[in-house]
Amino acid sequence: MIQASEMDKRGRRALCHSLGRPLLLCVALIGQWRYSLNTEKLTATMQIAERVHSLAQEHNDAALMIGACRVLAVTLYFLGDFESARRYAKRGLQIWRSVGVQSPSEEIIPPAIACLCSLTLCEWHLGEVASSRAAIAEAISLAKELNNMHAVAEALSWAAGFGHAERNPAEVDRLTSDLIELSTRHNFVYWLAQAAVLRGSARSASGKTVEGISWIEEGIRDYRATGSMIRLPYFLALKAEALYLAHRCFRSA
Question: Are 208 and 179 spatial neighbours (Cβ–Cβ below 8 Å)?
Answer without folding.
Answer: no
